[in-house]
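Hi V.,

Quick status before I head out on leave. The structure for the redesign project is tokenized and pasted below; the design run finished overnight.
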């Protein structure tokens, strides 16, 4: 009972004895209420907990809130009132709160507007609109390049298993020539991860450093960008081996890779350079057989030597 309601009821009592009795009963009620919240691990009452609380006391159910999407009917979701969107309260709340702080984000407690939620996740992923059809189904090896089938199939299977969450390893590095299909596999893996409900980020590594430099030049906190890559559910670092990296660039990549390795978070990386261009610290993580796959795609550049599926 809120303070205003408490005051209204108390003021309606016309003698001291009645008010004293009311105060005592209200005090006991508050203690039971606090025990209930502690039992549920809550700091304040939620709509879902309120239903159980009223049942426990033998009170009639509170009238349901009207749906904001379908006026005249009860809301099926007390979190968003069927709108499908809520405003985040912090990083411990809605899944997509961090990259869109202060903006309305999809409600994670109901299935309302599932397509809108999936579309939001896609927009936040960084996968370009032009590459959202780069799926595993469209990854087709041209017949004239059949001699590369074994190498391509191994890379395909590793990427697919990582994306589906069925791989015994959680880190994957595919390296090979430009145009051999590495990035297509990376996009395809990202699309599968999104379909599984994972907060997925596709990051072209040279662009990452441009974004970090821009943030620092503007006096903004560049650490938020790195934290987002470290903490997302599924990360793709395309072209991870930057040519002639500065000490700062090498440290950023090492920080991201090392943090994800330490916390067993999936990481899919690609590069068109040799694996040792990553540097010893990063390479050591990808060479760990208990946690990682590292493989070369032997296929040539199909964009110039032959058609490559739906690229």
């Amino acid at each position: 009972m809120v303070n205003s309601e408490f005051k209204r009821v108390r003021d309606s009592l016309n003698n001291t004895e009645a008010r004293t009795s009311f105060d005592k009963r209200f005090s006991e009620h508050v203690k039971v209420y606090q025990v209930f919240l502690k039992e549920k691990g809550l700091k304040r009452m939620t709509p879902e907990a309120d239903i159980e609380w009223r049942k426990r006391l033998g009170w009639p159910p509170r009238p349901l809130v009207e749906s904001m999407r379908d006026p005249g009917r009860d809301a099926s979701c007390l979190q968003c009132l069927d709108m499908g969107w809520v405003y985040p309260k912090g990083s411990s709340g809605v899944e997509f709160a961090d990259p869109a702080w202060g903006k309305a984000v999809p409600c994670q407690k109901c299935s309302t507007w599932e397509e809108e939620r999936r579309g939001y996740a896609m927009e936040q992923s960084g996968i370009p609109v032009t590459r959202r059809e780069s799926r595993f189904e469209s990854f087709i090896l041209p017949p004239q390049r059949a001699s590369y089938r074994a190498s391509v199939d191994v890379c395909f299977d590793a990427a697919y298993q990582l994306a589906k969450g069925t791989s015994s390893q959680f880190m994957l590095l595919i390296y090979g020539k430009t145009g051999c299909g590495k990035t297509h596999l990376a996009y395809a893996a990202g699309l599968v991860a999104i379909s599984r409900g994972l907060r997925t980020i596709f990051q072209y590594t040279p662009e990452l450093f441009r974004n970090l430099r821009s943030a620092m030049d503007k006096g903004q906190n560049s650490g938020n960008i790195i934290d987002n890559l470290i903490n997302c559910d599924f990360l793709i670092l395309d072209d991870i081996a930057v040519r002639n990296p500065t000490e700062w660039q090498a440290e950023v990549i090492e920080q991201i890779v090392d943090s994800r390795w330490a916390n067993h978070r999936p990481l899919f990386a690609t590069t068109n350079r040799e694996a040792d261009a990553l540097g010893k610290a990063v390479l050591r993580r990808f060479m760990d057989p208990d946690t990682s796959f590292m493989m070369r795609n032997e296929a040539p550049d199909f964009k110039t030597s032959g058609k490559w599926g739906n690229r």
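Above is the designed sequence. Strands lie at 85-86, 105-106, 171-176, 200-204, 234-238, 267-271, 292-297.

G. will cover questions while I'm gone.

Best,
W.
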